């Protein structure tokens, strides 16, 4: 572009106008709005953007643009391009010189009224010269397009007029003689005058599409070097052109019933889409240079003989959706260079055997969406270079042996949506095939003549077999070494085994979605994964997609549940990855991934194991989570318990449920491997504990008629028991209950319902009784009479004293003890082997109370006590339950600091039960309870709740707290001469409330 100086004069606009300037010359605005300088051959280096009182200027640095706004009008300049856009919104615009004779490449007008003086006059006034490309959008003219509108535009080479109502005249384009491209789309043109283009001696491309043209004169373009003509979307019914230079013709979407192209000797491609052509003359294109024919969406039912014969330049033929029923055998004879042929979406049921006689160079053949039933290998024999074959959406039932044998270079084969049932053994002997599509057929097996029908596909990478009836994976898949994507969705797979998966060699993704999958057996997955060797240091990672709403959520899918819950070795997940959405067939649409693994059981008959006993009268299941057998005989009106219990060599134990029957007696289960036994809600009268299974962990015998435990030897009985229930029975509480009481005392910490076990027709709790209390020997009658008389007299003397003592017993004892008056019987002789006076059991959250108050208060003073504290006296690393038992056993008392924190502590409750059990065994009061803080009785264990209901306790903050606590501790002779120091502990808390 030459060096130019550009001075801008005042631009007077009486209405709205938008002008965009994109140029490289130097620009000066008359009123100093913009100063631009550009030297020849150099990219402009500086840009000044000034403002005046009438116009504003904005400099867009990143876009290299300047935008000047004068009122509602805008001028934009981009110095990196050479383009001006003018957008007018009013008919009253008075242009004055704006630029100093600049040359631009592109000029765009929009929404402007063309004046009679023409466009040239307007752009000359603005100072614009030598426009090369001009685009007029939504222009308005006063009448037809006369020669004055486009006069003196000799520099314009491309003219694009659109969305403008044009009436052409013979002189419309006399002012643009150098046009090479003319676009007149969507301008409502109805007629084309015969001489309208006569002055365009350089015109090569003409677009008259999307107008209302009904007729084109055959000599309209005579003498014009036209190469491309677009007449689409008009109202033409016939077409006969005489344009020797024309190469590209588009007459799509018209109403053409006949067309003549004999005078188009250089025609290369033609588009006839969406016309109403019924037929054409023989060898329609014989005098052309045709390379591509596109004709779709018509009713071209009768193809002429030799329609496309002897066209040695023809490469692409697309005859789609034309309702063609038959094609002539010689339609493409001697047109040996065709590389793509599409006859899709017609009504063909066969092709003549010799149709492809001369099509040896064809690479793509599309016969989809027809009614073809068979594939004749002789038909396809000449297609030795064919790479893509689409036979989808036909009626093919079977591909016979050698049907595709000559297609040695075929890479893509689409047979979707046919009625294929199977293949001949040699049918798919296509060694270079990389993509095979067989979706939506009726294939149930890929085995033909006892051989895998896909075994020739050495290069295959993608196979789509979705929506068929396949139900298994054949070992032949192992030979498809390059396969990386297989789609088996929507088939009939009900069982998938790891043995099946391993046949798919080096698979990247296998799609098994929407199959009626019931079982996924991964029992041997770990074995296969460990045997897998990682080639080239990369794992052979198989990825599978699964979905089904028929999934069986029982033990048959236990190994798959382990896989989903990451309970298999890491090597397994390097071998296989599964994305799944499996819904249980339980009617609740439960997702299998949310099912608890412990609930995955299955019928005993399904469980396969050696030496398995039969299950006849009960419901028997197997649970793989802990390898246990579950024998459920509940609610069966049994009067006799089964003597034969299910068992097997490879199960760990059996659970036996006899609940809610009418059983009166249990057989001897001593030698059976039963860990859980439920005999609740029966009619048992007695039970021999020594005849129960030795390994029993859980025993339920509530709601029976049991009166006693019959066996006395408890030394080696139920060593592993953890849970016992015994309530709602007819337990007797006389001397015959000795075994029962001993049993309850021994297993009190294991009895879940201890606080609910009472004597028959009484509210007396059995655990509160001792053998001595229920076995007092009856004295003879005389002794009883004498003793009664003595007691009567003695009672009269001590009556009042007893009443006083009864009402103030505790205060009297505390007062005596606080004044060093001890009882006649000392506990020193009974507990002389005890190491500590008291073991303090408390929650670590209450340690401040113990450390700052209780310990100093008890270990200080004139009568200090020796205390056992776990943070001070326990052996680090020793077993906690053993240390609890040892601390209780070595202490004369156990002080329980009972708070809400204590109730929340597992070890706190354990310490209480241990102390409580020890007290029951020794039949002595060993426990001192200090209530600390507020708590609710609903949070108490049954034993603790029962203990508090029958024993006194001390509240922290009580006025006599220390006197009561010392009184409850072991009494020892005090030194008379020592003065007792009273320790006062401030009461920081409110009185304890027990709700």
Automatic annotation (TrEMBL):
Keywords, sorted A to Z: Glycoprotein, Leucine-rich repeat, Membrane, Receptor, Repeat, Signal, Transmembrane, Transmembrane helix
Protein location: Membrane
Keyword Transmembrane helix: yes
Entry annotated with the keyword rRNA-binding: no
GO molecular function annotations of the record: signaling receptor activity
Family: Belongs to the Toll-like receptor family.
GO CC annotation terms, alphabetical: plasma membrane
Domain of life assignment: Eukaryota
Record's protein name: TIR domain-containing protein
InterPro entries: Leu-rich_rpt, Leu-rich_rpt_typical-subtyp, LRR_dom_sf, TIR_dom, Toll_tir_struct_dom_sf
